[in-house]
């Protein structure tokens, strides 16, 4: 057998998987005999070290041109491509054998071609495995002798051979598999495989070689010539290291510099770097790839080169006026626009401009009208006066903008409504500082009482009492002013009393709520700079906080009583069922009107009945009237809630019923003051807490009656306003004779 000459044997240094070191070679060492040698390849300066010590990417530049050193020899370098990751070399890549006419043996034996241990791999996309002969079947085998790829060439006579085509007649070609580093060639006779006994064909020699794709052209002379001395180009692919991009990123990172990306080798292990589209340069050296100015040089992509604009990583082509298209050579180019198209285009642009101007003008006018309207409402609602009062009296009220409250309530969304009443709607809102508030949006406003309204806002904002919902401020930029209160989370007393799905409130809690409500009303009537008449006391205006402490709310209908006066004359306002009958008839409002309304709330607490009955089976409509009638006929026990009957006891029940009757007197002079009601309820609550037997309770009840008589007529001493408190925060002070009755 004949000896197979091998081109690419490699025994390179074991550091191929290590990081590149630009100091090994001079970065971008230039060229050798007009062949560019880009980094990571470099020109070896000292060849005397011996081939076994040379770097994997070393190139020798001597009188023979650039040579790639391999253990089997040096091979001329034709081209090195960084973007493609290839190196093209010249060498003898022919294996051949001839058949003897007598014995049929091949001479010489086959020999391997290997790239193992190197960063190089045979390119499966740029090389072809080629076999030439008339009785040849050649295969490529792996290291373990397994079949990988191959093809067969066969011909009977010279007449059957077609030059220029490797179709299997005299010549065949086959692709090679990926990641191939070893060529182990093996020849087989087609005639021998099929058991033919004919003589050896007229061309007994077969050749097999690897060659760059599209470079070899088959001729008849190749069948009879000696191809062993012919050099052919072979393309090798190279890669960095033996790990993928993701594996390198998780460690020290890849060698890819700026404006480049890492991609895994598709033909073996390792990775390569490539510049981004629109960039050029060496991705392995700092500062990395640089932007390509596509507008300069012969590669200008535009139909009209002078209308090319370079961008980072690309370019923009524009067509001259009167032409349309993308302006690129590979795209739609530039085409002349017809006159009609120009007119239509210009007309459309003008229409869009006019439409945009109209919209902008409309928006601007609308914004100005809205601003003027807000300013008009602000002045109309006494905004200037309120500002002056806030600055002069150090009031705590804040003036909110309409936009702030609109945003806080999500444009007054339906799902933010807390409740609706005769005078307006209450919304839950959240301010920008995340403070949760209740915003009341009233339905009506009396423009003739603006000054009175401002005075009330200033006074109410100064009230800081644990049983009164605090007024935080208002908004005057709307037609009807908006009031902003602190938010009370647990709803109102009406909901807890009349909701069948909720459990019944204990008598102790009902009495506590009554006492806390009385404290708030007594405070408003007696302990403020100007007495405040609530004018709409009802169970739905008694809110319960997170600790179920009662807080009187909704001062939208309240009025201030001028100094040294006991009443004011107003339009009748309030809620039917709670409304003072005498106030309804005379329009004269006093603090006793609140006492009457509180009496209705007491009856609600006793009976758990609504102030106006909607039940057609009831023979009554007004709870207060029905209660008075039932007491007169000694039938009120039939009205009392079962929970109260079980927990209150006859003594407590009789006392509360009597207090309610006194509050519901038709004549206001017969009604007690709220401070007197407070003293009675507070004493009764203390007795309830002592949990004594009936005799002990009777004893204390007698004590309670004596104390009540001792303090009747001097109740004004029970509440004191701290005149020196600039914040106007007042405290309910129980007289020392009743100090033992102080609330917990």
From TrEMBL:
The chain crosses the membrane at residues 342-365. It comes from the Eukaryota. GO terms for biological process: cell surface receptor signaling pathway. ATP binds at residue 441. Its main location: membrane. InterPro entries: EGF, EGF-like_Ca-bd_dom, Kinase-like_dom_sf, NOTCH1_EGF-like, Prot_kinase_dom, Protein_kinase_ATP_BS, Ser-Thr/Tyr_kinase_cat_dom, Ser/Thr_kinase_AS. Disulfide bonds join 256-273. One of its GO terms (molecular function) is protein serine/threonine kinase activity. It is found in: Membrane. One of its GO terms (cellular component) is plasma membrane. This is Wall-associated kinase family protein. It comes from Rhynchospora pubera.
């Amino acid at each position: 057998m004949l000896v197979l000459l091998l081109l690419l044997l490699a025994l390179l240094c074991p550091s191929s998987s290590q990081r590149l070191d630009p100091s090994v070679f001079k970065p971008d060492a230039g060229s050798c005999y007009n062949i560019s040698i880009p980094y990571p390849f470099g020109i070896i300066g000292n060849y005397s070290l011996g081939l076994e010590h040379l770097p994997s990417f070393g190139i020798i530049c001597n009188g023979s041109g650039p040579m790639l050193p391999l253990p089997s020899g040096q091979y001329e370098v034709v081209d090195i491509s960084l973007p493609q990751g290839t190196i093209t070399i010249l060498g003898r890549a022919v294996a051949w054998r001839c058949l003897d006419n007598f014995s049929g043996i091949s001479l010489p034996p086959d020999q391997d071609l290997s790239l193992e241990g190197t960063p190089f791999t045979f390119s499966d996309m740029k090389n072809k495995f080629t076999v030439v002969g008339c009785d040849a079947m050649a295969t490529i085998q792996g290291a373990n002798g397994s079949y990988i790829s191959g093809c067969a060439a066969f011909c009977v006579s010279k007449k059957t051979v077609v030059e220029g085509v490797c179709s299997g007649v005299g010549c065949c070609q086959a692709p090679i598999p990926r990641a191939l580093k070893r060529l182990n060639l093996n020849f087989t006779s087609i005639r021998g495989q099929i058991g033919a006994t004919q003589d050896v064909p007229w061309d007994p020699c077969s050749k097999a070689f690897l060659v760059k794709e599209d470079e070899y052209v088959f001729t008849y002379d190749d069948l009879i010539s000696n191809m062993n001395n012919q050099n052919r180009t072979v393309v090798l692919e190279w890669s960095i290291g033996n790990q993928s991009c993701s594996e390198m990123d998780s460690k020290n990172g890849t060698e890819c510099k700026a404006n480049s990306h890492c991609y895994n080798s598709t033909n073996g292990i390792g990775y390569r770097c490539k510049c981004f589209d629109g960039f050029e340069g060496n991705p392995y050296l700092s500062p990395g790839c640089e932007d390509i100015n596509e507008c300069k040089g012969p590669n200008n992509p535009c139909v009209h080169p002078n209308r090319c604009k370079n961008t980072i990583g690309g370019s923009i082509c524009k067509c001259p006026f009167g032409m349309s298209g993308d302006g690129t050579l590979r795209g739609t180019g530039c085409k002349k626009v017809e006159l009609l198209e120009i007119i239509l285009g210009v007309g459309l642009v003008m229409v869009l401009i006019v439409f945009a101007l109209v919209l902008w003008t409309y928006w601007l006018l609308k914004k100005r009208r809205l601003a003027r309207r807000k300013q008009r409402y602000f002045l109309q609602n006494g905004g200037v006066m309120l500002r002056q009062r806030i600055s002069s009296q150090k009031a705590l009220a804040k003036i909110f903008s309409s936009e702030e409250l609109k945003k806080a309530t999500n444009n007054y969304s339906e799902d933010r409504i807390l409740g609706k009443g005769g005078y307006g709607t209450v919304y839950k809102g959240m301010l920008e500082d995340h403070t949760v508030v209740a915003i009341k949006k009233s339905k009506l406003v009396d423009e003739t009482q603006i000054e009175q309204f401002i005075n009330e806002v200033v006074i109410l904002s100064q009230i800081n009492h644990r049983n009164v919902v605090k007024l935080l401020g208002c908004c005057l930029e709307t037609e009807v002013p908006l009031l902003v209160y602190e938010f009370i989370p647990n709803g109102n007393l009406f909901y807890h009393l009349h909701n069948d799905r909720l459990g019944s409130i204990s008598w102790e809690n009902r009495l506590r709520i009554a006492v806390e409500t009385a404290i708030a009303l007594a405070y408003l009537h007696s302990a403020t700079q100007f007495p405040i008449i609530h004018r709409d006391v009802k169970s739905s205006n008694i809110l319960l906080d997170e600790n179920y402490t009662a807080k009187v709310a909704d001062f939208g209908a309240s009025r201030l009583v001028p100094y040294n006066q006991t009443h004011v004359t107003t339009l009748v306002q309030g809620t039917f069922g709670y409304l003072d009958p005498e106030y309804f008839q005379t329009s004269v409002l006093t603090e006793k009107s609140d006492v009457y309304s509180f009496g209705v709330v007491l009856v609600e607490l006793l009976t758990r009945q609504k102030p106006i009955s909607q039940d057609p089976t009831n023979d009554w409509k007004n709870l207060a009237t029905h209660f008075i009638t039932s007491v007169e006929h000694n039938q009120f026990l039939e009205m009392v809630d079962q929970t109260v009957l079980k927990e209150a006891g006859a003594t407590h029940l009789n006392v509360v019923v009597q207090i309610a009757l006194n509050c519901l007197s038709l004549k206001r002079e017969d009604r007690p003051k709220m401070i007197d009601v407070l003293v009675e309820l507070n004493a009764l609550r203390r007795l309830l807490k002592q949990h004594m037997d009936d005799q002990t309770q009777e004893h204390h009840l007698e004590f309670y009656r004596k104390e009540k008589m001792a303090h009747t007529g001097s109740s004004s001493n029970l509440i004191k306003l701290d005149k020196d408190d600039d914040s106007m925060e007042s405290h309910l002070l129980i007289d020392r004779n009743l100090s033992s009755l102080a609330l917990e």
